[in-house]
Amino acid sequence: MSDDSDAFGVADIQVDALSGPDADDVQDAVGPEPLDVLVFFTPRESTREVLEAVFAAGAGRISDYEEACFVSEGTGQFRPVRDASPVIGHLGELEHVLEHRVELVLPRRLRDEVVAALLEAHPYEVPAFHVLETVRPFGSGVDPRSGA
């Protein structure tokens, strides 16, 4: 991203402290608890709203850090067909959209809640996303930085 003046506003999200789940309800994401990684794609103008929803559901916590994520920019494409009701574009026409790819961690036990928040907040009829399970969480007795 070139600056914080776009609709996403990286600095604004870091400054706007959102009230997420209570610390008692969510263990630190870096600990013995298994983690997932959520990756989703959203139009630039919707990134902030979707992030606020998944953060509120408990995603983006790493130890003593909240609302942690990685956002990169690219161009998504799709062609709505058959009975699609596209938010952007028209049936049968190939559409190109400036989008953000967002990656963030979440406790595996909150997967259903975080995905539900993503689907509720996302503007697309069928959002593109995937959830990856991590192999070894931090705090499992093995230092992942050592390679052991």
Structural description of this entry:
By secondary structure, the chain is of the alpha+beta class. Helices cover 18% and strands 24% of the residues. It has helices at residues 10-15, 47-56, 111-121; strands at residues 35-43, 70-78, 95-107, 129-133. The longest helix is centred in the last third of the chain and has 11 residues, at 111-121. The chain has a four-stranded antiparallel sheet with strand order 2-3-1-4. The chain starts with 9 loop residues before the first helix and ends in a 15-residue tail after the last strand. The chain has three helices and four strands. It is elongated and about 50 Å long. It has a domain at 33-133: Alpha-Beta Plaits.
Secondary-structure arrangement, i.e. CATH architecture of the domain at 33-133: 2-Layer Sandwich
Question: β content, as a range?
Answer: 15-25%
The name CATH uses for the topology of the domain at 33-133 is Alpha-Beta Plaits
- Evaluate the radius of gyration: 17 Å
How many angstroms separate the termini?
36 Å
Order of helices and strands: HEHEEHE
Q: Give the helix tally.
A: 3
SSE inventory with pairings:
Elements: H1 10-15, E1 35-43, H2 47-56, E2 70-78, E3 95-107, H3 111-121, E4 129-133
Antiparallel strand pairs: 1-3, 1-4, 2-3
